[in-house]
Amino acid sequence: MDFELKASSLADAARLKADAVVVLVPDAGVVGDGPLAELVDHALRAGDLDTKAGKLLQAYRVAGVSAPRVLLAGCGDASGRKVMTAVQAAVGALRGRKVRRLALWLPEGAAAVRAAVTATAETSYAYVTTKSKPEPRELEKVSLLVAEAGAEAKAELRTARAVAAGIEFARELGNLPPNVATPTRLGEEARQMAKSHGFQCEVLGPKEVAKLGMGSFMAVAQGSQEPLRFIVLRYQGAAAGQAPVVLVGKGITFDSGGISIKPAGEMDEMKFDMSGAASVLGVFRALAESRPAINVVGLVPACENLPDGRAFKPGDVVTSMSGQTIEVLNTDAEGRLILCDALTYAARFKPRAVIDIATLTGACVVALGGVRSGLFASDDALAAALQQAGDAAFDPCWRMPLDDEYGEGLKTNFADMANVAGRQAGAVTAAKFLQRFVGDFPWAHLDIAGTAWKGGAAKGSTGRPVPLLLQYLHGLQAAPAKADKAAKADKPATAVRRRPAR
Ligand code: BES
Ligand code: MN
Ligand code: ZN
Hints:
Layout: E1 2-7, H1 10-15, E2 20-25, H2 35-46, E3 56-60, E4 69-74, H3 80-94, E5 101-105, H4 110-124, E6 141-146, H5 151-175, H6 183-197, E7 200-204, H7 206-212, H8 215-221, E8 229-236, E9 245-249, E10 251-255, H9 275-290, E11 295-305, E12 317-319, E13 325-327, H10 335-346, E14 353-358, H11 362-368, E15 373-377, H12 380-392, E16 397-399, E17 417-418, H13 426-435, E18 443-447, E19 453-454, E20 460-461, H14 466-475
Parallel strand pairs: 1-6, 2-4, 2-5, 5-6, 9-11, 9-14, 10-11, 13-17, 14-18, 15-16
Antiparallel strand pairs: 3-4, 7-8, 8-11, 12-13, 15-18, 19-20
């Protein structure tokens, strides 16, 4: 889908050749003249148009308007959130109507451009890959009509396009069936992306991973016929000496639970257990376009978790890359077992921050549902930056505690720790487990078990938390990392703006 930005009045919008024109109408009303302004005016006076975000009024073949379909869409206070809701409703209503060229008349402000692009891309995405008769993609060109197409709006468009591409990449990978999106396929996707966009990429297999001593990761993979992969992707947008942000994504391409097998109901949804990995690859897809002046490393441990004669089992003790031993009390707590070795590996990059992203616990779904991802962090500045990034990108998260008392349940008589604690606070005890593998760098963990996909009729990947991560990463450009790891505080861009000296 192609987006363009056009400086246009409401009168110009009426003359634009398109299959549909959508006019966003804020509470404050629209400014302009011509047939579209008149239509808005009449509809508002008659009480037929509600300016609440998401409310629509549709018209057809309006005199003086070139586009046959006209949609008036309330957008409330015209905030980014409300513009998103309005565009989601409008684009959703036009789905299946063969609209190829769409004109979107936006209220003022650069925030509207970003929101409109994100919402249009999100709403028009359709999974087609494994359907024998896929419906063709409809939207080809979207013209964003704004009062002024200034530098700020243009920059917003560039960023929003990149973010939309990243979200879509993550969603598509997440939605692929588990017999297609295997660890090998994830490795190929990474390699291919590196080749097209000039990233460095290494994809390690079982032999190399054994050499690294990732005994915990290997234990999870050993019950599957699919060979594991460990993906290392590097984006260099700043000087080579600048400390990178390391993103670690859980890449369980199918989680049956292993010997501690899950119940059959909805087990298919465990194909989404590689959503953390998909979000890391999605971020890189976006970085390829947005090219911020920072360095980013992506790490993805990828494997299946299956029961088998060779599978690991409850009671097994494994030795992680860090040297710490782990008693496996539940093979379904496998995410932490692959992430712990990746966290140990992350230290070699002397990172300014490490963020792991994982569909880690059902307990996090119980705690926060599908609205906010769980955020755990050892570093207050990093936590604040991520929380703010999530709010700004409409991809919110919520900070959870890491008190040491929560880790006490991981004690066992037979190893340095067990891989599960009791039933209580399961999302926190999982994070406490991971924390034992965190080196001397600021660390955050995003539990996206509730936010990475939707179940039910709308079943499918959401692409979260790609928007949050990109908002955070793009914000770092304004707050350059020091070359050494003394750069502890990853403050958001707003925190570094200083009042001019008097
Ligand atoms: N991938 C699951 C977490 C999950 C469960 C995500 C449901 C989304 C929905 C993870 O590997 C898992 O199975 N976790 C267990 C941990 C438990 C055994 C301590 C869980 O949450 O039940
Ligand atoms: Mn599991
Ligand atoms: Zn899992």
